[in-house]
Amino acid sequence: METLETLDTLNNSTLDAIETPDSIAENISYLDRILQNIFTWFSENLDTMLFVIFIGMATILAARTINNFLTRYYERASSRLHIDITTFRMFRHIVVAAVYFIGLVVVIFHIPSLRSLSIAMLSGAGLAGIVIGFAAQNTLSNIIAGIALALFQPFRVGDRLTIMNEFGKVTDINLRHTVILTWDNRRLIIPNSVISSEAIVNWTIEDPAVIWPLDVGISYDSDISLAKKIMVEEARKHPKVMTPQILEYSVVKPGLLKSETFANGLMNPSVLHAVDPDFRERGQVKVYVTEFGDSAINLRVNMWFKDRSDAYGAGCEIREAIKKRFDDEGIEIPYPYRTIVYKTDIENEKISKKPSPAEEAKKASGEQAN
């Protein structure tokens, strides 16, 4: 009996699972209602969708047109007006961002639901401002830091920096981040809020010329005067080491000069920089004895280069030339020498120096005879 009841239950469930023509018709009618609702919504909001698409395309076209126009204007006017590229790029980024923002505002106020939502958010501006401020804290801090970098200009586009243990050239400053092209052709992208709080070595902000040191150790038996002479001669032979000169022009920045200052090609704004009075004399090659080390006398040669990008490679070549001259002239660059004295050796030496009993007796007899 139990087996028959189980079979009846399975048959009833199987029959219930089979769709009847009425259930199929109900599903078809449900799908029709969904499609009809979608079609109705599209037909009622077609003008809104077309408007949004039109405004979006117009905004993108306007932003690109303005960006291209400003770029071409800078290329034409930079040589005549001496426009600072860092300030110009930041201004260009702000203008393009403003165009996109205006397009977004137009779309929001054209759609009634979005307009009412925006009005509600503005009416509760206190709470909304707190929420938005926390949500966009990093973005806002980067934007504010980017504007501050463009205004105060601790560095400019084209400057060479050492930051976060990286050396490279600034290629772009926008509202969010700064792009630095490193010496090995990598792009270092640093958020503006981070770079504004970092200690930066700017090699080209005013005077790009740099004193580059090179340390060499010689043995205590070597001739110091000859070693210093060789180091000066090899430094002078290199074509990138600056010749002795004195700079006489005023401490000014190119952005503050009037156009008539550059009349008749008297000054080149690309090489005109502020010069500190303490460093007007440049181009000297000087060698100093810096330390008496454990196994070497350490010498340092200071050389002038026109900028940091030349200094490293030229310094490596000069170091190699000095090594070859030292080998030819008999100047030794020593290995670290260490003298190890064992305690047992000291005790044995003391015992060996102690006189024997016969020597002590002979010495005593000699003193009595005297």
Automatic annotation (TrEMBL):
Residues 214-333 form the Mechanosensitive ion channel MscS C-terminal domain. One of its GO terms (cellular component) is plasma membrane. Its main location: membrane. InterPro entries: LSM_dom_sf, MS_channel_C, MscS_beta-dom_sf, MscS_channel_2nd, MscS_channel_C_sf, MscS_channel_TM-2. The keyword Cell division does not apply. Residues 138-204 form the Mechanosensitive ion channel MscS domain. The keyword Membrane applies. The chain crosses the membrane at residues 49-70, 91-111. It is found in: Cell membrane. It is a multi-pass membrane protein. GO terms for biological process: transmembrane transport. Keywords: Cell membrane, Membrane, Transmembrane, Transmembrane helix. It comes from the Archaea. Residues 349-370 are annotated as: Disordered. Pfam families: MS_channel_2nd, MS_channel_3rd. Belongs to the MscS (TC 1.A.23) family. This is Mechanosensitive ion channel protein MscS.
